[in-house]
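Appendix B. Raw example, untouched.
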Amino acid sequence: MSPRRSVVVAALLLLLGQPHPALAQDWPGPVSDVFRQVVFDPTTYAPAVLSFTAERLDWKSSQVFFQHGYVEHNPQFTISGRPDDVPISYGAGKRRITANALADLTASAMNNVSSRVVERVLIARFPTRQKLIRALGWVERIAFAASLATVQSSRHFRQWRENERLARELGYQ
């Protein structure tokens, strides 16, 4: 099983073992607070949305080349799992992209949960530094989200633009 798939499976098992989100008001105070903070924090979703968008643009713009006999360089999207081979089907690629985005969402949510828990512990220990601790928490969550989004999406955005340029040059569009 790939590392991303393992993360997605672990996250789903964790989520399935938790009380239903609609019952969050029944959870103990700190758990409910952390849950709400993570759910309403945009840094939880931004990396997944950006990586999903970038991969979908890259994948969709690659299809015209596959129709003309080109091979896929990314081994994650080939039938054999090796680079420069026959691409998987369009639908299988969309499913893989969705799984990748869910793995990014899981990583981001886990980071935000741990950040909020550490924040709560530090505020309890240093109540006079509450504003500083919260600001540092935001800095950490934004930095994590920005770095994850950049790592996961920048290559795909570049490839999408290159695919668009090359398709125009070759008259495929």
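End of appendix B.
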